[in-house]
Fold this protein.
Amino acid sequence: MVKVVLIGSGNVAHHLIEAFAKNQKVDVIQVFARQKESVTTLFDSNKIISNYTDLADADLYIIAVSDDAIASVSEQIPFENRLVVHTSGTVAMNSLDSKNRKGIFYPLQTFTKNKAVDFSQIPICLESENESDFELLNKVAQSISNTVFKINSLQRKALHVSAVFVNNFVNHLYQIGHEICIENNVPFEILKPLILETANKIMNLSPKEAQTGPAKRNDTKTIEAHLDLLSNENQATIYKILTQSIQNNGKKL
Amino acid sequence: MVKVVLIGSGNVAHHLIEAFAKNQKVDVIQVFARQKESVTTLFDSNKIISNYTDLADADLYIIAVSDDAIASVSEQIPFENRLVVHTSGTVAMNSLDSKNRKGIFYPLQTFTKNKAVDFSQIPICLESENESDFELLNKVAQSISNTVFKINSLQRKALHVSAVFVNNFVNHLYQIGHEICIENNVPFEILKPLILETANKIMNLSPKEAQTGPAKRNDTKTIEAHLDLLSNENQATIYKILTQSIQNNGKKL
């Protein structure tokens, strides 16, 4: 069994604790949480520590804390030459303190506390400073996920930017659609099957092939009618810019 | 059985023919198609007509043609005082010729030819000029869908604008994500589970509750790093505007 220590008590740490609990290849021997109560429902409280000097010997230390805290947490690990990874999509591998061997263990998903996830479907992106450490990271990742990728730091950065577009920004467009419905007394429920189908469609088609709508058709009459209906200036600005981008096929404006 | 004539041979017509074929409450007695070949695989070719003078007596005529053609098609129906509806999300009910009783039968979904849809999950939005016609429309809609809504023309227009945001624009953001992946040698596959989860998440949470990411967190460092990576000016413009909109919580800029 690979011995793992998890440092953190946020969403990612919670979901990792649950995922590892179910498997026979990885043994989470400790969880570090500044506030023990935040993980006691998930993990044996005798193995929860809140003092770095209590950290036990392990094959792998996974730092799952907020981006800003990664560097300082990695400095406080009282060992040398251990394998220490973080779970962030944006923070550079080199932000980890150099006294230990560095790596990345980045599960690419949007985690919500109290919402169960099927970790086997979540891609995990791995990177390691030393080739020899990759094997161990791969073993740990494969024990919980069916899709594991070797991704370098530049690729990971690009992935994270893409994720902002397809997750954060997409969700914001859902919010705008929601607001337009509320303003016009229409149940947002009506749009939910469309939202699911829009996502499902690109599982087999490229987004370019899947594109439909007035912008794609250059249907100026409909575009003008839509802009007339949007009383909110912010919504109109977004409508115009995305319409123009579709019309230019994503090329430079 | 309600006797229905379907006018049109595009995506919506195709999917309606297939949906009605399976049910016992509606009898599609004719399909009007300018080019018979376009529907012969789906429908008894003896009942396909391409001349308006061949139109038979029916309880309901459904015009499923492109927005621009709806008015002229409705003029060419050689009857009076029949129930005639169209399937468009944008065209006004009053675009239909006044010699017949008007209505709307708008299935809100993105249809792709040759991609099967489960019509029972597709919301159908109905409107009728006369209250007495609503019952028949409702019966026809309920025969193929589990979610039928009474929606007036203004609400339908708002729905369509919302649909542009949550479908057309969302798909365009998928395309941008796809392009960023290609430019940086990252498999777009990695993002697919995230895309599905983003859509699934708002089935139970409001989009506002589901919002995450650097814009929401006001994480200026990450936002700047992302803008650095975007070499395409169009992508950068969209990134900035959507980030600002999230930060302003969708309020006027």
Observations:
- The radius of gyration of chain B is 22 Å.
- DSSP finds nine helices and eight strands in chain B.
